[in-house]
Design brief:
Distance between the termini: 53 Å
Largest sheet: 6 strands, mixed
Shape: elongated
Number of helices: 12
Strand content: 15-25%
Radius of gyration: 24 Å
CATH class of the largest domain: Alpha Beta
């Protein structure tokens, strides 16, 4: 079955909004316009209604909604495409949205080709600029049924600080692994030093509660850490105007990780930031 949204349908919807803004018309007439862009006006009209961009007014004419007018007013096509994706998610709760919980790569790989292409044309398939990161965080939050993404924003700030810190430390850009997938067991891939290019895998934890905060280590993160040759945890204290960092190696972390006993198997452990108070420094 054809997807409700594709790049061609989206561009057709943008054109339909312009047409209806100038000339409201009955729904049947809009469906009979022929082609809007490269797609039939019937499919475009159906999509525009699904997204909540058009409605029938009291005179029985199809017109842009307030939401449709706001889409039409957006100056950048990329921005319009991103909003189309979010409106589609709100309208249909498609199965592919669940992939957003695991990172950008999962959506691009496992969503229908039409949706992946919309993501690419919306400038979402690559890049680390704040608006792209914010989009994927918002999509992940909607997949989890959340609308308050402040906690995730704190984590992202910590990851950004780690990327900046590692580039200063090694002289080379680090890779933001967690943006594309959170299934790898670490967030940032850097190098051991400016003279040693061996990979260093970094798990990032951040808190705005200072040393009264805490962080969780999952079993997957711990198992991954043990398998890696070089691993570190970056703890970011974001409670003051100048962030503080504690770099904890696997031996330091091991002192706070439980052991399986009997038939029991631990899945996550909560560790207070105060456990590493002595190693926090302003950076």
């Amino acid at each position: 079955m054809s997807e409700a949204l594709s790049p061609g349908i989206a561009y057709g919807c943008f054109e339909l909004l312009d047409v209806l803004d100038a000339t409201p018309m009955p729904l049947g007439a809009a469906r009979s316009l022929g082609k809007l862009g490269v797609v039939s006006s019937d499919r475009v009209t159906t999509c525009a209604q699904l997204l909540g961009w058009t409605e029938i007014n009291d005179a029985g004419l199809l017109v842009p909604t307030v939401r449709g007018q706001s889409i039409r007013a957006m100056p950048r096509t990329e921005e319009r495409l991103r909003e189309a994706l979010l409106d589609l998610v709100d309208a249909t709760d498609p199965p592919w949205i669940q992939g957003a919980r695991f990172g950008r790569r999962h959506v691009l790989q496992y969503s229908p080709p039409e949706i992946a292409q919309v993501c690419r044309e919306a400038g979402l398939a690559t890049g680390l600029v704040p608006e792209v990161v914010a989009f994927w965080d918002l999509l992940a939050a909607r997949a989890r049924g959340l609308h308050d993404v402040r906690l995730n924003e704190t984590g992202r700030q910590g990851e950004r600080l780690t990327l900046q810190y590692e580039e200063r430390r090694t002289g080379k850009p680090a890779r933001w692994i967690a943006l594309d997938s959170n299934a790898d067991g670490y967030d940032v891939l850097s190098s051991v030093s400016d003279s040693d290019g061996a990979p260093l895998c970094i798990e990032v934890k951040a808190s705005r509660a200072g040393l009264t905060g805490d962080f969780y280590v999952t079993r997957n993160e711990w198992d991954t850490a043990q398998d890696l040759l070089n691993f570190a945890v970056h703890l970011w204290d974001l409670s003051a105007s100048h962030p503080r960092l504690a770099v904890v190696d696997i031996q330091g972390l091991a002192a706070h990780v439980p052991h399986d006993k009997g038939e029991g198997r631990w899945e996550s452990v909560c560790i207070p930031f105060s456990s590493f108070a002595a190693v926090f420094v302003v950076v």
